[in-house]
Design goal:
This protein has a single domain, classed as Sandwich (Immunoglobulin-like). 10% of the residues lie in helices and 51% in strands. It has one helix at 7-20, and strands at 24-27, 35-39, 43-49, 51-53, 65-70, 75-84, 95-104, 111-123, 126-139. The chain has a four-stranded mixed beta sheet, with no helix packed on it. A three-stranded antiparallel beta sheet has the order 3-7-6, with no helix packed on it. The radius of gyration is 20 Å and the shape is elongated. The termini are far apart.
Amino acid sequence: MRIGNKATPILAFMVVMLLGGGAVQAQTIQFTVRDIALKSGESTEFTDIYLIGLNCKSLLKDTPVVEILDGPPGVTAVVNAAKVVPHGYSCANPVAGGKLVITAKDVQDYSYTRMVLRVTYKTVNGERQYSQELNIALFPPS
């Protein structure tokens, strides 16, 4: 049986996916909401952050770190170390990871701004970085 030239790229893709495409099952920034609103002085626990392999075991060597690449002044983001359960991947046990907390400090005027976050993961396979955008509405104290 002869396979035409059009089928060759498809077969190559399938071989790559079968042999090398399954090393990591899930990285996360699992954002359930992309818009948040905070008053001056408020904080919100925004999402769980983790990185797991196919066996639902953490690939992290340390707590992930977040930095704000673009965003309004007076807003901070931090990842607090925590055990989190990656429910979306049918994992039942907690794994090493963290909770992303966003805080608005000393807001004087209303603003609605796009915010760009970059999370750095220190893994057993080296360092990885992922970014995410979200919209944040800031309100001064009542």
